[in-house]
Amino acid sequence: MQNPDLSPMTSERDLIAAARDGDESAFRRLVEPHRANLHAHCYRMLASLHDAEDALQEALLRAWRGLARFEERSTVRTWLHRIATNVCLDAIRKRPKRVLPVDYGPSVDAGGEESNVPVDPGVWIDPYPDADLSVEDGYAAPEARYEQREAIELAFIAAVQFLPPRQRAMLILRDVLGFSAKETTEVMETTVTASNSLLQRAREAVEERLPGRSQQATLRELGDARVREVVDRFVDAFEHGDVDAILAMLTDDATFGMPPIPSWTRGRDAVGESWLMPSELPTGLRYAATSANGQLAVGAYRFAEDGNIYRPIALDVLTLRDDGQITDVLAFRTPEIFPTFGLAPEIPG
Q: Taking the CB of the first residue and of the last residue of the chain, which one, N or C, has fewer CB atoms within 10 A?
């Protein structure tokens, strides 16, 4: 049922009333301003694009069904985030935390076992298409400690996965979304004292794992022209199979991994000797620039002679140092995600 009296200027309260009467279009208008933030919230909690989408749909379904019980003593934003947080906490109880290769096992050069056999995709953190999913720049609120894009960087997502679920939720609600102490007690259904205790422990644990500087700060300092130069050099080196040029772009302690394959290496020399590097010329590779998790990313394509086309093989997400050197490369071997990042499913040969 749809209310013909609703206009673009209809108030939030009137939208709530119409939605309670069964108007689905009013409900969509009510929740649409919050959809992108809710999706990013679910991703931060679950570290999986697919799981975040499922959690968001479940949260909106619960909100629709529970609208009659919404007493409007809190804002719609707080109410929706309480529902989404509970959906995520339910999901976390049913599966192990997701990690990056560096947290899965030791590097090959440090005695870890080299393997090119993929591990269950449910183990790994997914990359996130922040640009296409409308993650905004800056802080969500004056009380927030992390920028919104900073809080989807791979380092941040990996760090919060090590927190107990309720600490994870509390840190994201307070320090990323900028909810007040009072609002988080409503969302988490706890006391102010317990809320502050959870937050303090979460902050201490996350700060130990985060790098000293975010990629957002690094990219701003480098500037657009320097960043484009880095991307161009990276693409040119890989397309030409120029291992020396690739290694010259890496820091001494750079890491290189390729989930869902568990093997990873640390150090420029170890990377150069690993199977992750091109082994012959020409490589038959093509690259297309994009972004993921607020970071530089490129889609890698390999030539397929049977179809005279380049097919996707990996999404490479780069972490940069403030001098433009690359400290980490994560090549996600999940080509099915390319369209999600605005990348073509194939390139003509």
A: N
